[in-house]
Automatic annotation (TrEMBL):
InterPro entries: AAA+_ATPase, ABC_transporter-like_ATP-bd, ABC_Transporter_VariousFunc, P-loop_NTPase
Segments forming domain ABC transporter: 4-229
Single GO MF descriptor: ATP binding
UniProt keywords, alphabetically: ATP-binding, Nucleotide-binding, Transport
Pfam families: ABC_tran (PF00005)
Organism: Sutcliffiella tianshenii
Superkingdom of source: Bacteria
Lineage, broadest ranks: Bacteria, Bacillati, Bacillota, Bacilli, Bacillales
Name used for this protein in its record: ABC-2 type transport system ATP-binding protein
């Protein structure tokens, strides 16, 4: 079943279109990674899904309803980011104690266990937490709320490597025990690719890919070898990335297709390309690489 369905979804701030005619669906009870470069509109898209923002044109449906001003969507969704705020008069212990009144599936025991594991003090105030600790606390709220639609926008900002690892593990364990629809935006695809089932890659206001993680892992391959042989083999193939690796040798990244299996017969070397690198190449195409700046 589709939880999110968008057709021609467009969002503009003033005259600037950030999302431009997006079409995609997100399936129920899956973990989807929303991946894209800085400023491409990930937060905007997540806030449209959560019903915080109104679309400019096109259609967005969450459980078949327009999310903006929808009680169903707001009652069943949690949006976790580093701007999450709570009543300033409440300390952390009191916030945890009150959450059950807001979230129908709130699990107080899980919240308490995570709270103790990450060494929070009940008397601490949310406003005085460091960036990493604040996001760790927000993550606890996001997990323990067990909302049918759980949205994490860059949840690991400021967390150290050990806490990020713990967070991904906790997310996976709780998701397996209590499946729900989770959208996770992150810049660390390499860290989360084993967690994700689907991926939504966006760039320049559009959906570049909406595929399973398995497909993403197989999406591209790197081919290297003698430049003249490689150029001939490439023919009309679209090159996602290219660099010289010697006086007459070259390395290119191309979409994996049937012809790729023949590359070895031409004396070329074929290597896998990670999902994370494939996303970087796909979203860097228009700009070229940092090396171009120094040419
Ligand atoms: N309220 C707003 N008013 C005007 N422009 C905005 C507003 N919010 C976001 N933008 C612009 O929309 C674009 C997309 O911003 P958004 O925060 O959605 O991107 P993002 O992909 O989440 O970025 P990052 O990865 O850096 O967090 C940016 O150019 C941003 O400056």
């Amino acid at each position: 079943m589709k939880v999110v369905a968008c057709r021609g979804l467009t969002k503009a701030y003033g005259h600037t279109k950030v999302l431009d005619g997006m079409n995609f669906n997100l399936e129920e009870n899956k973990i989807t990674g929303l991946i894209g470069r800085n400023g491409v509109g990930k937060t905007t898209l997540l806030k449209l899904i959560a019903g915080f923002y109104k679309e400019t044109s096109g259609e967005i449906k969450v459980w078949g309803e327009r999310p903006f001003n929808s009680l169903t969507v707001s009652a069943n969704t949690i949006f976790v980011d580093d701007h999450m705020s709570f009543a300033p008069a409440l300390n952390l212990g009191e916030i945890i104690g009150e959450m059950g009144r807001f979230y129908a599936n709130w699990n107080a025991e899980l919240a308490k266990r995570l709270f103790d594991y990450f060494s929070f003090h009940p008397k601490q105030s949310h406003d005085t937490l460091s960036k990493g600790k604040r996001n760790t606390f927000n993550m606890i709220i996001g997990l323990a709320s067990r909302c049918p639609l759980t949205i994490f926008d860059e949840p690991t900002t400021g967390m150290d490597a050990a806490v990020r690892k713990d967070f991904y593990r906790a997310l996976l364990k709780d998701y397996l025990a209590f499946p729900r629809t989770i959208i996770l935006s992150s810049h660390h695809l390499d860290e989360i690719e084993d967690l994700l089932e689907d991926i939504l890659l966006i760039d320049q206001g559009e959906v570049l890919l909406n595929v399973s993680m398995e497909e993403m892992k197989e999406y591209a391959v790197g081919i290297s070898g003698k430049e003249s042989v490689l150029e001939e083999w490439l023919l009309d193939r679209e090159v996602l990335y290219a660099k010289s690796i010697g006086p007459d040798s070259k390395y290119v990244v191309v979409k994996k297709d049937y012809g790729v299996s023949e590359a070895a017969r031409h004396g070329l070397t074929v290597r896998p390309v990670s999902a994370s690198d494939a996303c970087v190449y796909l979203t860097n195409k228009a700009k070229g690489g940092i090396d171009d700046v120094f040419k």
